[in-house]
Amino acid sequence: MATDASTSSHSTTAGILAEYYILFFIALALIVLRIYVRLRVAKNWGWDDYYIIVAWIFLLIGLVLVQIEADLGLGRHLHTLEDPEDKELGILKFNTFFQMANVLCTLFTKYSISIFILRIRDSKRLRWVLGFLMALMTLATIAVIVVLSVSCIPLRRLWDKTVPGTCLPLVTVYNVAYVQSGFTIVIDLCLTTAPILILWNVKVKRGRKTFICLLMSLGLIATVSNALRNYFQNGLTTSDMTYDMTGVTVLAILELCSGIIAANIPACMPLFTRRPKTARTTTCLPNGGGDYMMHTKSAAADTPSSSIRNNASLDAEDNVSLRRLTQPSKVATDGAHAV
Question: What does the entry list under GO cellular component (predicted)?
Answer without folding.
Answer: membrane
